[in-house]
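Justification of resources, computational component.

The compute hours requested in this renewal are based largely on the per-chain cost of generating structure records like the one below. Each record pairs the submitted sequence with a full C-alpha cell output. That output is archived, and it is also reused by downstream analysis tasks.
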Amino acid sequence: MADAAPSTTTGAVAPLEIGNFSHVCIGVSDMERSLAFYRDVLGMDVVWDVALEGASMESVTGRDGAKGRMIGGLIGGAVIELLALGDEGPAGRGPRIGYTNISFRVDDLDAAHERVLALGQRPQQEPVEISGVRMFFVADPDGTSIELIELPVGLISPVELWRGPASA
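The structure output for this chain reads:
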C-alpha cells in the first residue's frame, strides 16, 4: 500500500514539492533555421543534440510514427529545448491560451534592441515600459515570441521587483 499524500493544515492534500525549474521546450518547424536563431541571436550554448523516435516521441507529439530531433542548451542560465515538430503551421502573433512567450533579462535593453536589428531580426515593437520594466519582443523563425526585459537598476529577477531584493 502506498503512503498517503501529505496534507496541509486544513486537511487538504498538499501541493507537489517542486525542487526547481527544469526547462522550457519550444516546438519548431525547421531545426536548422531555429537553431541558428537561438544560437546566433540569443547566444544558446548547445549542450545536447539527439534524434528521437519510437513510443516516447509518439507520446510527446501525439502522432503515430513520429520522428524528430531535440537540441537543448543554455541561454542566460535557463535550459531551452528545441523540439523539431515539422510543419505544424506558424503560431499566431500575440498572447494565446497556454504558452505565450519566453523572457530573458538583459542589462541594457536599448543596446539589445540595436544588436537584434544588427543581427538582421525585426523586433515586434520599440522598447516599452510597464510597471518599471522595459521590454520588447522578437519572434523566432516559427513566430514564438521572445521577450527581452531590462529590470530597474540593480535587480536581476522579477521576484526582486515585486517582493524586494531579499526575496530572490
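Confidence is low (pLDDT under 50) at residues 89-97. The helical segments are 31-40, 55-61, 109-118, 158-163.
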